[in-house]
């Protein structure tokens, strides 16, 4: 079913359109932001996670306008090389996705279907440009885009640094950083003319020797056909273990196209 495909591909790519209050992810209260910080982007990248592999076990809740479902998601990342996402319901594997810098593959059990391709069709389907690095960044709480390569207008919104992309008027992007550790708190990507919007919120950051990572992510995806919602809560996180990435499409499954 579609919900398992989306969870498997993004592991999380959405939650309802309600705006949530964004809290600074720290045990200490940050000082109120009163002025811009010209080094905000540079300071954001000082938080970059240093790891070779990452294992995450998470609880995921999917909801759209017709149904909702609670599942578990297992996420395995070999940094900059591959991501394997397994989605289970009542202990049964319902879907798997294997993502590499050049390919996206998944299969789902309900309809016995699978997909193999690159990011172009998936990007068109989601309504925003997607690649391996962006998926990896989303899962570990780093800015969706490389902020060092863009030009941004900085303002203060709700005590956060808001960086708005100036490059493309058709696709609006904004990134919100906290004023203490410069972690990403929220990201917004929208195409107003096409009634599309993607909002990603990060909560409950935890610090490890490898760096800081959010343990709760919500994403709001609004498209002309409706809203899709997912909450992801990381229950177990471990770094630099030896991981396997087993993926094979069961026999008898039918290949599908994403349009």
Helical residues, percent: 10-25%
Q: Number of helix segments?
A: 4
Query: What is the total tally of β strands?
Result: 14
Biggest β-sheet strands, sense, barrel: 14 strands, mixed
Class derived from helix and strand content: mainly beta
Mean pLDDT: 83
Quaternary structure state of the chains depicted: single chain
User: Overall 3D geometry?
Assistant: globular
Low-confidence stretches: 1-30
Strand content: over 45%
Task: Encode the helix/strand succession as letters.
Answer: HHEEEEEEHHEEEEEEEE
Instruction: Report strand order across the widest sheet.
Output: 7-8-9-10-11-12-13-1-2-3-4-5-6-14
Task: Please report the distance between the alpha carbons of the first and last residues.
Answer: 16 Å
Verbal overview:
It is a single chain. This protein has a 14-stranded mixed beta sheet, covered by helices on one side. The chain has helices at residues 2-10, 40-44, 119-126, 132-140, and strands spanning 53-64, 68-78, 82-89, 92-99, 104-108, 113-117, 152-157, 160-165, 172-177, 184-191, 196-208, 211-223, 226-239, 254-255. 34% of the residues are buried. The chain has four helices and 14 strands. It is mostly beta strands and 259 residues long. Helices cover 12% and strands 45% of the residues.
List the helices and strands and how they pair.
Layout: H1 2-10, H2 40-44, E1 53-64, E2 68-78, E3 82-89, E4 92-99, E5 104-108, E6 113-117, H3 119-126, H4 132-140, E7 152-157, E8 160-165, E9 172-177, E10 184-191, E11 196-208, E12 211-223, E13 226-239, E14 254-255
Parallel strand pairs: 6-14
Antiparallel strand pairs: 1-2, 1-13, 2-3, 3-4, 4-5, 5-6, 7-8, 8-9, 9-10, 10-11, 11-12, 12-13
């Amino acid at each position: 079913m579609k919900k398992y495909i989306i969870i498997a591909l993004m592991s999380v790519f959405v939650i309802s359109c309600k705006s949530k209050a964004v809290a600074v992810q720290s045990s200490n209260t940050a000082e109120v932001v009163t002025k811009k910080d010209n080094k905000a982007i540079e300071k954001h990248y000082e938080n970059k996670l240093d790891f070779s592999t990452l294992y995450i076990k998470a609880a995921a809740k999917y909801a759209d306008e017709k149904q909702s479902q609670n599942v578990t998601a297992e996420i395995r990342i070999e940094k900059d090389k591959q991501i394997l996402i397994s989605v289970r319901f009542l202990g049964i594997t319902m879907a798997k996705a294997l993502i590499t810098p050049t390919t996206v593959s998944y299969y789902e059990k309900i309809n016995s279907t699978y997909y193999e391709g690159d990011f172009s069709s998936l990007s068109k389907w989601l309504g925003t440009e997607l690649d391996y690095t962006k998926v990896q960044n989303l899962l570990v709480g780093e800015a969706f885009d490389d902020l060092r390569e863009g030009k941004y207008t900085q303002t203060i919104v709700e005590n956060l640094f808001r960086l708005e992309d100036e490059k493309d008027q058709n696709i609006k992007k904004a990134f919100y950083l906290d004023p203490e550790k410069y972690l990403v708190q929220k990201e917004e990507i929208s195409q107003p003319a096409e009634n599309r919007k993607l909002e990603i919120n990060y909560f409950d950051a935890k610090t490890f020797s490898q760096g800081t990572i959010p343990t709760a992510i919500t994403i709001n995806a609004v498209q002309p056909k409706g809203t899709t919602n997912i909450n992801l809560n990381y229950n177990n996180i471990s770094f630099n273990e030896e991981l396997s990435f087993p993926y094979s499409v069961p026999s008898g499954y039918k290949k599908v196209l994403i349009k």
